[in-house]
Write a structure and sequence with these properties.
By secondary structure, the protein is α/β, with parallel strands linked by helices. It has a single domain, classed as Class I glutamine amidotransferase (GATase) domain (Rossmann fold, 3-Layer(aba) Sandwich), CATH 3.40.50. It is built from 6 helices and 11 strands. The protein has helices spanning 3-23, 56-68, 122-133, 143-150, 168-172, 197-209, and strands spanning 45-49, 72-77, 83-84, 91-92, 96-97, 108-111, 137-141, 158-160, 176-178, 182-185, 188-191. The chain has a 7-stranded mixed beta sheet, with helices on both faces. Strands 3-4 form a two-stranded antiparallel ribbon. Strand 6 (108-111), helix 3 (122-133) and strand 7 form a beta-alpha-beta unit. The chain is globular, with a radius of gyration of 28 Å. The relative contact order is 0.14.
Length: 210
């Protein structure tokens, strides 16, 4: 076979292959799915109440989990100044003054703990009481549970005791002590400390999804 015939044969073979590729079944590129979260809490309004020297885990983990599911987070504090965590590594500028908060504007109120912590703030007590009066989900973790107790909203409610705080504070408030890291009684959720932050967040999400 001369060189011209060889070139012609090769050319025809290439045409056949190209036509087969255009007209036949083509393999689709492999796409790695990107993990997504169901926006089950889209437009839910969540208020997180913090104080100076708040706990980073108790604030950060619930916030991240709630936001991934579409919730809108508002942070309240007694002052409009930047609030620092007790390690100093996290700084948060509040969105609203605690004195301006009305619990009826939110779907859930979350009291974040810290150290040291003032559980006797009258505005915190007012917000907790309004949450109960208006049928909102109310949650507290670590020393935030003591705020709920002193606000008088734990009477007759199951609540977890803090791992390093006298249980008598809850007993004096009429709470029924529980040993679980996180306890839910109706619309009230309590967590016993930083180690329970993820489970605490999951309980809030589950309650809001109902």
């Amino acid at each position: 076979m001369n060189s011209r015939k060889v070139r012609l044969t090769i050319g025809l073979a290439l045409v056949v292959l190209l036509l087969a590729g255009c007209g036949g079944t083509r393999a689709e590129p492999t796409v790695t799915p990107i993990p997504t979260f169901t926006l089950s809490l889209a437009n839910k309004q969540i208020l997180m109440v913090i104080q100076e020297r708040f706990n980073e885990s108790e604030y950060g983990k619930p916030r991240a989990m709630l936001e991934k599911r579409g919730a809108v987070i508002t942070v309240a504090a007694p002052s409009s100044d930047v609030v620092k965590s007790y390690t100093g590594g996290k700084r948060v500028r509040p969105d609203v003054l605690l004195s301006d908060v009305r619990a009826a504007d939110y779907d859930a109120i979350v009291f974040v703990g810290g150290m040291p912590y003032d559980p006797d703030d009258p505005e915190m007590h007012r917000v907790a009481q309004e949450a109960v009066a208006t049928g909102k989900l109310l949650a507290g973790i670590c020393n935030g549970v003591i705020t709920l107790a002193k606000a008088g909203v734990l009477e007759g409610k199951r609540a977890t005791s803090l791992s390093y705080h006298p249980a008598s504070e809850l007993e004096k408030a009429g709470a029924i002590l529980a040993d679980a890291p996180v306890e839910r009684d109706g619309l009230i959720i309590t967590g016993n400390g930083p180690e329970a932050s993820t489970q605490f967040a999951e309980a809030i999400v589950a309650a809001l999804e109902e």
